[in-house]
Amino acid sequence: MSTTQASKIEIIKAPNTKINEVDFDNINFGSVFTDHLFECDYKNGEWQTPTIKPYAPFMMDPSSRVFHYGQAIFEGMKAYKDDNNDIWLFRPDENIKRFNSSAVRMAMPEVPVSLFTEGLNQLLKLDEAWIKKGLGNTLYIRPFMIATGFGVVANPSDEYKFMIILSPAKAYYSGEVKVLVAEHYSRAANGGIGSAKTAGNYAGQFYPTSLANKEGYQQIIWTDDATHTKLEEAGTMNVFFRFNDTLVTAPTSERILDGVTRKSLIDMAKREGINMEVRPVLISELTEGIKNGSLKEIFGAGTAAVVSPIKGFAYKEEYFELPKIENSIALQLKEKLTNIQHKLAEDPFDWTVKI
Amino acid sequence: MSTTQASKIEIIKAPNTKINEVDFDNINFGSVFTDHLFECDYKNGEWQTPTIKPYAPFMMDPSSRVFHYGQAIFEGMKAYKDDNNDIWLFRPDENIKRFNSSAVRMAMPEVPVSLFTEGLNQLLKLDEAWIKKGLGNTLYIRPFMIATGFGVVANPSDEYKFMIILSPAKAYYSGEVKVLVAEHYSRAANGGIGSAKTAGNYAGQFYPTSLANKEGYQQIIWTDDATHTKLEEAGTMNVFFRFNDTLVTAPTSERILDGVTRKSLIDMAKREGINMEVRPVLISELTEGIKNGSLKEIFGAGTAAVVSPIKGFAYKEEYFELPKIENSIALQLKEKLTNIQHKLAEDPFDWTVKI
Ligand SMILES: Cc1ncc(COP(=O)(O)O)c(C=O)c1O
Ligand SMILES: Cc1ncc(COP(=O)(O)O)c(C=O)c1O
């Protein structure tokens, strides 16, 4: 299947490029798209002819299942260009695997690995001018799938659309991040869909996050919904805590997205000889850690945000600010990771893949 | 605002009707739509000119927020035609109120009551030929709102589309319903979005429901995610249990949709002098109730399904069948409710509204 499908991609080129209209140094994250997109529809139980074509709106029926019952999944990846103009991906196999496990959980068809890979690679080659060289410049890749079947009946759709769109991007968060620890609202249920990268998980966070924003916090650190004592993850990042010289992060579960950045940082930390623990982290450890001085750092980790230091957190109406420190492990790991991703340092893990 | 907006609806009539192509006695639920739809877009912080126009697909950008972050809510209502050709709605105020509380929870703008009401009423008048007389004939009404703003960044959209589409419908479930009681999977978290009628809540149920289907169960009765001991609701229905001559249903909460049918049945049961309890119901009460003979009936309640008797349930690999009974309270309440809705009986509650 892999070769047949790969050879079948229909390519319709855009008559002109929009690239000259773009100020690459001033792009809001996720707001500008390249000239082309990759599209493949699923109908009658199989994937149809894949197409690369100009980025453009498309027609949807008002009764399309995605609007009513929310079958929608996505991934977030990045492409990097090195000094030789080669294009690199970071652990794309992990994203494809996660995309397909999200698909299973949302009762959607899996996308064959060869279709995903070939579609992505050919799209990147066609729009390669949009990938700029240099640390901090990346092309954000957004594969997604939506239910396009008709009918307002709460059953899985029989038709789907898989697309990949590309958006040039710098880092996601700018400025210092303060977070609120969730005491009432939750992101995910036991036995729910928290570990799937599905659209509804994000919409559910917007209202509580808007309440947090009003109080001056950019993000929420979600806790388990039963006891609100275990720290789980932030809106689009997994979270790490440093107590003295030990890094700690929560184990993945049905409630937590199994982040590629998270698992990469765990491996990097271990290789650096940093003491790395994967275990449930309690909110009480943070408040005590602030009091006795053992809590040194908190940072988020995700493809969009890379590594994002957190300045302080609020819990039960109290704000706790982290100490200023000299040797931030967050910043060291961030530098090492981005150097690997941008091919500016050796990649001892074989994580980077040339397309 | 109410009168200005009401007067502003732009109406574009369909050149011809599709009604003659429809076999009203053989329609799959939610699969056939009337000639027109109501549409109103939200932009720059306000609702734009509302329009009634021919039912048709519309354009969506690949980066539309609904595809990526799942801001999407809906309602389900029905219209009925009486012997005088008057058109009636059942407690529409309840649906509008719930729609707007779903909107708040999903960080979407509320739809002004007058805009919703006028849009719906004018649409129903225009497509009134699609509402057939007679018990069991209804027009299912699907108001919904989706995030149409551009950009793959996990923030609330700045643009939305509100639509109402109409679909002629008979009863939703046919045949006898067997249910599976959830032991591992869950529908909603404490502090989550379970009480909002939002798209993602439905997609999350499809996979566990497909596993249940394979074992011969049509629906799942969801339990609380922390202990899986409290019976909450089914996929698109609230659930009632009859122990001897007492009816019991779970209280609403953040995890449970506050159903219009549920609250109507509670009021009807009370008026009939039936002992009606609203309290948490444990799975152990059901298994014991089967053993000692006190569990007489289980039924689902919802707009689409009306009242749907449940034949038996499975829990921990064991199937429990309910006894056959003579005087089913489910069927009595169903008859009373549908008679009120179809204007075939007095409406002592003032629930029906003529448009
Ligand atoms: C909920 C959530 N958690 C964590 C992450 C981080 O995952 P990754 O490192 O794979 O980007 C993301 C973003 O992708 C996310 O959406
Ligand atoms: C999850 C869920 N529970 C219960 C119901 C029943 O609510 P109502 O009686 O208002 O239709 C519905 C359907 O509308 C539903 O989707």
Automatic annotation (TrEMBL), chains A, B:
Q: Which cofactor does it need?
A: pyridoxal 5'-phosphate
Q: Which InterPro entries match?
A: Aminotrans_IV, Aminotrans_IV_CS, Aminotransferase-like, B_amino_transII, BCAT-like_C, BCAT-like_N, BCAT_family
Q: Which Gene3D superfamilies match?
A: 3.30.470.10, D-amino Acid Aminotransferase, subunit A, domain 2 (3.20.10.10)
Q: Which residues carry this modification: N6-(pyridoxal phosphate)lysine?
A: K197
- GO MF term list: L-isoleucine-2-oxoglutarate transaminase activity; L-leucine-2-oxoglutarate transaminase activity; L-valine-2-oxoglutarate transaminase activity
Q: What class of enzyme is it?
A: transferase
Q: What is this protein called?
A: Branched-chain-amino-acid aminotransferase
Per the UniProt record, the source organism is Flavobacterium flevense
